[in-house]
Amino acid sequence: MKRNLRIAPSLLSADFARLGEEVRAVTAAGADFLHFDVMDNHYVPNLTVGPLVCAAIKPHATIPIDVHLMVKPVDRIVPDFAKAGASIISFHPEASEHVDRTIGLIHEQGCKAGLVFNPATPLDWLMHVIDKLDLVLIMSVNPGFGGQSFIPHALEKLKAARKLVDAAMERSGREILLEVDGGVKVDNIGAIAAAGADTFVAGSAVFGTPDYRATIAAMRAQLATAGGAQ
Fold first, then answer.
1. Is residue 124 flagged as an active site residue?
2. Known catalytic residue at 75
C-alpha cells in the first residue's frame, strides 16, 4: 500500500537565537511538519521550551506544528499548546493518569492526538486506544536529548506497530500516522521506512547540515527506494 511519507525536522536541533528564521528555512527546504520537543526536567532529564515559544514560531509556520510532550503531568499543559498553535499533540502513556481522558482532552482542544512509546514501553496501550489516535510515535532513542544513535530494536517495534495501525485504518477509514523519532539520518531512513514508518523526525541530521534543502532531498531519495508516495 502506497503511503504518504512526511519529514518532520526537530526544532530541538535548530539555532534558538534565530528560531523564526530556522522555521522558515526548513519549511522552504521541503519539511512537511515542524517537530516541537517539550521537556520538563521531570519526566525527562532535560528542560527545553514551552507554549510561549510555540506561540512565537506560529506566525512563521506554514506547515503543521507537531508537538511532542515529554512532561508529567500532561493534561494541565495541553490547552496551552493548543492555544499556542499546535496541530498535533503527542504524549507518553507513563505521563498520564488516564490515557483515554488525555486523548479526549487533546481532541476537545481542536488538535490531533498522538501516543508515544519509549524503547522499553510495550505497544499494549494501542489495544485500548488506537481507534481514537491520529498518530503513533515510536521512540528510537530514550527521550531527553538530541543527537543520540538509533536503537536497532525500534525496527521490529515499527513492524509490529505498522500492523496495528493498518488494521485500525482499515476498520475506521481514518488516517493514523506512524512516526519515528531518534537517530534518523539519510543513511538509515530507507530501512526505517521499510519497517513501516511514514513520518520521520530528524533533528541534527537536518539542522546540523549546511544545506537543509539538499539534506531533505537526500532523505526523500532514500525514501523513494523504500516505496511510498513522496
1. no
2. no
Domain ranges of the chain: 6-224
C-alpha cell at 193: 521506512
* b/e burial code for range 35-70 (CB count within 10 A of at least 16 → b): bbbbbbeebbeeebbbbebbeebbeebebbbbbbbb
pLDDT in tens, 145-164: 888 899 999 999 999 999 99
Catalytic residue among 40, 66, 134, 181: 181
Domain at 6-224, CATH class: alpha beta
Q: Which of 37, 66, 134, 198 is catalytic?
A: 37
Please confirm whether the linkage preceding 79 is cis (ω < 30° from 0). no
| CA 106/CA 38 separation, integer angstroms | 16
**95-147, pLDDT tens digit by residue?**
999 999 999 999 999 999 999 999 999 999 999 999 999 999 999 999 888 88
